[in-house]
Amino acid sequence: MGGLQKKKYESGSATNYISRNKARKKLSLSLADFRRLCILKGIYPHEPKHKKKVNKGSTAQRTFYLLKDIRFLMHEPIVGKFREYKIFVRKLRKAYGKAEWGTAEKLRGNKPGYKLDHIIKERYPTFIDALRDVDDALSMCFLFSTFPRTGKCHVQTIELCRRLSVEWMNYIITLRSLRKVFLSIKGIYYQAEVLGQIITWLVPYQFAHDHPTDVDYRVMATFTELYTTLLGFINFRLYQTLNLVYPPKLDGKGEEESRAESEEDYAMDSERYMEVLLHLFCHSRFSHPCFGSLQEKLFEGLKFFLNREVPRESLAFVLRCFGAQVSWDKSLCIGSTYDVTDETITHHVVDRPSLEKQYINRYYVQPQWVYDCVNARMLLPVEDYFVGVTLPPHLSPFVEEKEGDYVPPEKLKLLALQKGERPEQEEEEEEEDNDDSEEEEDEDQSDDEDELKGMEEKCRVCRPIVLFQASSVKVTPGEAKPVNRQRAEQEAKAEEKRLAVMMMKKRDKYLYDKIMFGKKRSVREANKMSAKRKALDEASKANKKKKLKK
Amino acid sequence: ARNMAAARRHKRVAASQPGFLRLKPDLDHSASRIGHKKRVNKNKKKNWNKYSDIQDVEEFLEDVRLQERATGGLLSDKSDDGLFFVDVGEQKVRPDPGAVEKKGKGLKPLRIDLILQPDSQVPPPKDILAYQQPNARKLRLMAQKAEKLAAMGVLPRRERLLQRRRIPGSEKPVANNDPARAFYDLWRPDQGCDVFSDPPPRWQRPEKLNVKPSLLPAVEVAAPGASYNPDFTSHQALLLEAHETEVAKLKAEEKLARQLAVRKEDLATEESVFREQVEGLIEEEEEKLEAEEDDEGTAVGPTAQTEKKTEKQRKREKADRVKLQKKAERKAIDSRQQLFQLRTISAELRRREQQTSVRRTRRKDQQEREKVQPRRLGKLRFQAPDLDVQLSDELSGSLRTLKPEGSILKDRFKSLQKRNLIEPRERAKFKRKFKVKYVEKREFREIQ
User: Which residue windows does the record flag with biased composition (Acidic residues) (chain B) (predicted)?
Assistant: First the structure.
């Protein structure tokens, strides 16, 4: 046809996108190198709106990148380093193949490497940008530091991750900015506040875990490479804001102790520095000026001793974040400052079903007490967490209940405690062990009534429990009730509203009913949940009674 | 071919050695071999060495050599006295009276040794020349000066030249993941990075790349039912969620099975089989004949048709013209009447605007939702990870007996995919270019 006609796929979205293989060939990199480059530079594939146009009529599923991004990639100096590395590998393989050991040694000494500093500066031009992205980096670093040092992934990476995570924990301890902790079946979630940013990260448990096979380790290693560099720079800057030396050094006392203990071979020399850093609180002389709030001094003045079977690192971190002194058995790890026989220990954290030898002037608690205190921002009564006692459930501090949602009774108890009221319902329920069945029934009934009333109130509005005393039934002379003006106004308004609703047209009333139905749905669900919970409690009570009768 | 022949010869010679163990123990080995002796031409030089057996001569010569070594001369040449003696029994050995007994202190030093001993008490003089260095002082002063300069930091000329030859980029690069690597303040205003700190504006990072591909948070906290010691309701809620996903999966499987199952109608019954067998054999022939006759009746010649059509055409044209006219009139009337229809027109417009606004809000909501969803970035779709949940009997109330569920590595990997940072990929399968062919070796084929 004529030469001036527009051809298809020559302009528009078809020219803005480029497929992955074409991009790779444009940069002349292998696929693994291309993926690594994209991860390091932060170039992600895009899903175009009209795939058929971009794919030039075909509907095959392809990965597309923006052409401008790939053009930007071509100016990256790291691309040259990747190519150098490829040539280095080829030369090394040839030297080994020809059994030229001298050449191989020389080549290995001059192995090409690259640095990611400029990429970090380009992706995060200000410090606050970097701080926003630090959750991911932290989780990855903590995860890699728990890997076994088998050689599957570079041992140096694991060591670097360990060092960075220890430095971060030290910073949080110094700043005392830990806010929430949640123990899930997957790992431990921490939330802290740093320079106005709320940072959440996930730490795995220290038990051995098997590695899943369908995870791409190369991709994770590349992400870790980027994140370790980022976290290192962030750590440096954070330490600078507190006028601390980076990398953190131990004070004189700490070093002597560490040297003395290293003779007993607690840790390899390479690890000694990090272990000592973590376990000997090296900034003991540092006093942050704004530790005024009660929350930051939660465990101030208390002395804790951790038994062997509790998660030592996590508990030490959490306890130190709130000003406590922590120690453990000497044979476990470097850094135990006092022994189990110390008389001034106030709390001893144990996780066993029973303990033979018990000292008098200390509380023996289970580790959940610490975490629950941190989440509740106050010291909870220790009796619920004694050794051998069935623990109350560990609630998640990350859940915020809106009005009308179901609030579990444990949470309500907690709120009550925070407001300073002690729930007496618990004590009443504990008096079930009476022989007199009538009294039991009465108490049960009153308990049930109270519970029901309480629950109904809770379900309507999220208010703290207003306690009812089991009052005896009798006739008393009437008394004039004072007219509460506010209440009267509210009632008048409610009356007006009801009248207006009655006067609505059928069409409008239909819409209104639909809206109110939707609003009351959450309330109805909460009622259902509370009924279920009540049924469960009753069933457990019945079981208890049966057991007692036996 | 020459190498193969040499190899074969080598093998044959090895096999013919007396102690050689065969793979197949040949039972009638000697009987079969003896009859079939290969006829060899011994006149060829090649075969002089191969097929001539000089073992007996060699043995004899060895024997002769052994005799000469051991006894000095052939045994046959020796006299009887030299080889044999008559054994008369043991005799006491009488000491020879003439021989002098050697004393224990005995062995006096030789005269010549005594003469050669130094007899002077004066020690030999020291050889100064061995310790002399003509310019020792000069060297000492030079060394002191060099030390002083080195302490101040000035290097000798040679070192300076060497260092000047050094190329700045060719120093040993520091590895990226070195655990003892140092960091610095990257965000200081005047801080330059090592490489490429200030690219020209043409090469700077495009603004679009600073937008995150997904608005999901990096770390999503688990549901309260996933606590290691959850409270009843949240645990039940989590179990319900897991249950629903399983139910949905089961339903999908069942639906597939149902769609692929054989329907009852498709099964062959006796009646349908009979009908198929009998098809085309009875009673349909009469109907067929009638149909054929009807077809023959309707055949018409072409000329009559065209005339009708042209009349029709004329009529149609006229009708069209009239229609057009009517349409125009109608249009004129309508445009005049629109003045009186303003209210309905405005109502119509309002309705349409409302529709467009509703559609706009719906499209905006859809866009917002898409910002949070995992996008389709490649061949594979994103598979949501399974919920980590522990059943009621797996729940252990204590931290010590907790068995962690799910792997954080997988969780992070899936989170990266969910936030559109990487595309979901599966492990590359090993594809062979050519099909593998299995062939049995000749020797093994013979084994029954």
Answer: 286-297
Would you give the DSSP letter of residue B442?
H
Q: Pull the structure tokens for residue A96.
A: 């080994």
Residue A164's closest CA among A107, A225, A217?
A225
Rounded Cα distance, A214 and A220, in Å = 12
Residue whose pair of structure tokens reads 């999908």 in the numeric block:
B252
- Nearest by CB to A156, from B175, B210, B406: name it: B175
Tell me which residue in B186, B199, B229 faces A393 most closely, judged by beta carbons. B229
Instruction: State the 10-residue block means of pLDDT for chain A, 550 residues long.
Output: 80 90 95 95 92 90 94 92 95 96 93 90 93 95 90 88 92 91 94 94 84 88 96 94 81 48 52 62 47 72 91 92 89 83 91 85 92 92 89 90 73 78 43 40 46 47 43 73 83 92 89 88 88 90 83
User: Could you give the CA distance from residue A229 to residue A223 in angstroms, rounded to a whole number?
Assistant: 10
Q: Which residues of A touch B389 (CB under 8 A)?
A: 185
CA–CA min distance A14, chain B (Å): 16
- The Cα–Cα gap between B226 and B402 comes to 12
Mark which residues 422-461 of A lie under 8 Å from B by CB: none
- For residue B196, give every residue at least 6 positions away whose Cβ sits within 8 Å of its Cβ, in sequence order, or none: A77, A118
Residue among B176, B407, B422 whose CB faces A114 most closely? B176
Task: Tell whether A198 is within 8 A of chain B (Cβ).
Answer: no
Residue B266 CA: distances (Å) to CA of A163, A194, B262, B274, B277: 70, 70, 7, 15, 17
Indicate the burial class of B181 (C-beta count within 10 angstroms; 0-12, 13-18, 19 or more): middle
Name the burial class of residue B259, with classes exposed (0-12), middle (13-18) and buried (19+) by CB atoms within 10 angstroms of its CB. exposed
Residue pair A55/A70 in contact by the 8 Å Cβ criterion = no
More confident residue, A184 or B195: A184
Nearest CB among B183, B377, B402 relative to A233 is that of B183
8 Å CB contact of B178 and A135: no
Q: Report the distance separating Cα B406 and Cα B386, nearest Å.
A: 9
By C-alpha distance, the chain A residue nearest B230 is: A393
Locate B366 and state its tokens. Answer: 């859809």
Six-digit token string for A153: 């992934």
Enumerate helices (H) and strands (E) in chain B, giving the number of each. 16, 0
Tell me if residue A279 falls in helix, strand or coil. helix
Place of tokens 């048709």: B305
Residues 6+ apart with CB under 8 A from A313: A206, A278
To the nearest whole angstrom, how far is the Cα of A3 from the nearest Cα of chain B?
Answer: 34
For A237, phi then psi, to 5°, come to -65, -40
Q: Judge: A111–B173 Cβ closer than 8 Å, yes or no.
A: yes
Interatomic CA distance for residues A277 and A260, integer angstroms = 15
Query: Is A237's CB within 8 Å of B185's CB?
Result: yes
> Does residue B98 surpass a pLDDT of 60?
no
Check: CB of residue A17 under 8 Å from CB of residue A64. yes
3-state helix/strand/coil string of A70-136: HHHHCCCHHHHHHHHHHHHHHHHHHHHHCCCHHHHHHHHHCCCCCCCHHHHHHHCCCHHHHHHCHHH
Contacts of A200 in chain B (CB under 8 A): 217, 219, 221
Interface contact B232-A214, CB threshold 8 A: no
Mutation target to probe the A interface, by most A beta carbons within 10 A, among B235, B407, B417, B429 is B407
A122 touches chain B (CB under 8 A): yes
Reading the block at residue B9, the tokens are 């010869």
Q: Which helix (H) or strand (E) holds B94?
A: none
| Closest to A339 in 3D by CA, of A348, A352, A331, A329 | A329
Residue B227 DSSP code: B
